[in-house]
Every structure is written in C-alpha cells, then in structure tokens.
Amino acid sequence: MPTEPSAATASHTAPHAAPRATVPAHPAHPVALPARRHLPVQPAGTPVLDVTVPVHNEEQDLERCVRRLHEHLARTFPYGFRITVADNASTDATPGISKRLEREIPEVRAFRLEEKGRGRALRTVWSASEAPVLAYMDVDLSTDLNALLPLVAPLISGHSDLAIGSRLARSSRVVRGAKREFISRTYNLILRGSLAARFSDAQCGFKAIRRDVAQRLLPMVEDTGWFFDTEMLVLAERAGLRIHEVPVDWVDDPASTVHIVSTAMDDLKGVWRIGRALAVGALPLDRLARPFGDDPRDRQLSGVPGGLARQLVGFCVIGALSTLFYLALYSLSRTVMGPQLANGVALLVSAVANTSANRRLTFGVRGRDRAVRHQAQGLVVFAIGLALTSGSLAALDAANADAAHSTEVAVLLAANLAATVLRFLLFRAWVFPDRAGPVPVTDATPHHADPKGDAR
C-alpha cells in the first residue's frame, strides 16, 4: 500500500501549522468510522473550512484567485475559514507571492512542496490541517464560487462524507470546447463501465471531504497526480461513503497547462490499477464503513437484515449473466455429449464462477480467508441446482423422449430460475451470512449528544 509523503518533502512557512497526523495504513484491528455528526460550533476564529489551492508556476493568476476567494468567503461563509496555497515546486514568482499573501491576509497560509503533483499536494496539506472540513479548487476559478457553500454544507451538517462539483449534472451550466467536453464525458463513461462508478464528474477541480474521513481514506490513495481525485472517489464509493454532488457553473480556462494526452494515459493506467486491486480485495475498505444512522439504537436492531435490496440487485445481475454463460456452455457441450453430462459440466463451471462473483461483489467478502470453504458450500448449492435441473430433464425425457433442443433449453431455464431463488437464500443465510455485529461507539466519535440533542 502507498505511504504518506515524508514531512521532509514539504516546508510550511506558517508558524501556526498543526503537526501532521499520522494514520497507520493497516491497523491490527480495523474499526469502522463513527456515525456522522453535525460539526460542533467552533470558537470564533477557529477554521471550520480549509480551502486548498494547488499551484505550479501560477504567478499570473495566484493573487487574483486568492483575493477573490477570500473576499467571497469573508462575505458569505458563516464559519471560520482558511485558504492554503499549496505550491508544487514552482520555479517562477509563485512562492514569493504566496508568502506575501500570507503576511497580508490572516486567513491565508503558504505551503511549499519540492515535488510536483496535485494529489501529493492535497494529501500533504489535508493530512496536516486541523480543520474539520477540507476542500480544494483550481487556481483559475473556473467554477462559480456560489457553489462553495452548497458544496461544504452537507459535510458540516453530517449528511455526507465527501462532496464534488459536477459539470455533467442536468442543471449545470458549462462553457467549454467540444474537445474537452468529449474527453470529459468519455472518461466518465469509462469509469462507469470499468469501475461501476456512480458519481457523474470525477475530474472537476472543486471537491470537499470531512477530515475524519480523509484521515482514513488518504493513506489508501496511491496516485500523486491528476488521478488522485478519481481514486479517492472510487474507494469512497466502494466503501459505502456518501458522496454529495453539486451542479456548478463552469467556464473553461483556455490557458490551462494540463497536458491532455499524458494525463489521459495516466488516468487509464490508474483505472486498471484500481480495478485490479478491487478485484482481488487488496484494499481494506472496511476501515471506511459507516454505521447506519446517527442514533446508537440504529446500530443495535436485531432481526433486521442489512443490505437486502443491494444484495438482491447484485445477485440478480450476476445470476442473469451466469444463466447466459450456463446456456452458452450447455449448447456448446451438447454438440459433443449427452444432455445430462452437458448440463452437469455447464452447471459446474458456471457455479464456480457464480460463487466467486457473488462472494466478492454481492456479499462484499474479499481476500482469501475462507475462500475454499465458500466454494465448497457453493458446490453444495450447485448440487441442489443440479438435482433440480437434472430432475427437470429426466421428467421431460419421460414425458417426451424426442423433445426438441429448444424445449430442453426452455425447461432448463425454468428450472434455473427456481434454483436461483433457492441459491440466493442459501448464499445469504448459510454461505455468506452477515456476521458483523453492531458497530461499537468508540472514543473516536467526535462528540456526544445530550438527551435534548445539543452538542457538548
């Protein structure tokens, strides 16, 4: 797993910088995140929001961006805030401008990194910040700042874990060229098709995250460049964290220095790497789990199965694909062997694949622990399905020994539907039962509530 950048790679010029928090990437006993809470009221002047502006050689736009952002926050944001300029190894006048802005504006701090990389800058600054809500935006201010408060409000209220601006939402208003529009939509289609991503816009430079989530999530994010956003969102979504999307007004910056081809290639490599890690269960996503609701009683309900709807949908999709796979194997095998043997071979191969897919995707069991046991139990379920389908074939043969191939397929399809229902019940209750007990309330919970619901 990736490690955090060394503190030696960054020098922070602000004297009030908080010491960087270190979070072990692999705790001996992973625990879930505490329930989301509305952030408590902070003392006057304490920043609730820390907005990071990553820059590299931005001497032309930096001061205009920071002053405009500061004026907007001072006028509209009802909490304390900070603006952090994260300089990524600039070689022009950017470092000097950052330090001057820090001296002139109390809410601005300068942060210097000696290596390039937007992801590296965000991970370093966010890991060092003590603000409970962390955000970032591009220095060109392509996104309308009126979306900033709607972006962070769900994080402050405790409703969501991350928030992103979306240029692809229905009510967004976007001005950009056809080339960038095509690339953006194609990239998001790739994410949906390959990683089953449900968020609409991965690369909009306008995002926010709660600090307690960032402390757990950032050590899992490997990329240090432009793919950082996508990797962070995919891992958060797969872990079940809530991602809030805000439609934004966005105007393309024609002077952008992003190299589209090289960035696209790096992104595709990142998609492959993340897809492979998710497929083999190499990421400890259980560390990012949230309890259901914010009332401790919600975590102690007995006899109420969790995730039934999601599991049922996943099982049905995998079942449909498995049935098509089974029928294709049966039709292929039927050309060289009898119906009973062809049925047994097709059902055995599809059953192994079905058990593996349901284990990983439907019931969220990752890694090799108990994998052999699960396959053995899956074979028992397979035997029941074999008895149903073989019995159906035997009954068909007894009724009509010269039945057409299409009739055999129809009978097998009906028998498989019945076997599928039974397979889901056995998988859920016997092969992959939910052994997770109530999530304990630990000292990591940000604060407690008194009987009247007031924070203290």
From TrEMBL:
Enzyme class, broadest EC rank: transferase
Keywords, comma-separated and alphabetical: Endoplasmic reticulum, Glycosyltransferase, Membrane, Signal-anchor, Transferase, Transmembrane, Transmembrane helix
Family note: Belongs to the glycosyltransferase 2 family.
Region called Disordered, residue ranges: 1-24
Key word Oxidoreductase present: no
GO molecular function: transferase activity
Source taxon at top rank: Bacteria
Compartments (UniProt record): Endoplasmic reticulum membrane; Membrane
Pfam family, one: GtrA_DPMS_TM
Substrates-to-products reaction catalysed: a di-trans,poly-cis-dolichyl phosphate + UDP-alpha-D-glucose = a di-trans,poly-cis-dolichyl beta-D-glucosyl phosphate + UDP
Pathway: Protein modification; protein glycosylation
Keyword Nucleotide-binding: no
EC number: 2.4.1.117
Name of this protein: dolichyl-phosphate beta-glucosyltransferase
Stretches assigned to the GtrA/DPMS transmembrane domain: 315-432
Residues in Glycosyltransferase 2-like domain copies: 51-217
Residues that span the membrane, as ranges: 307-329, 378-396, 408-426
Membrane disposition: Single-pass membrane protein; Multi-pass membrane protein
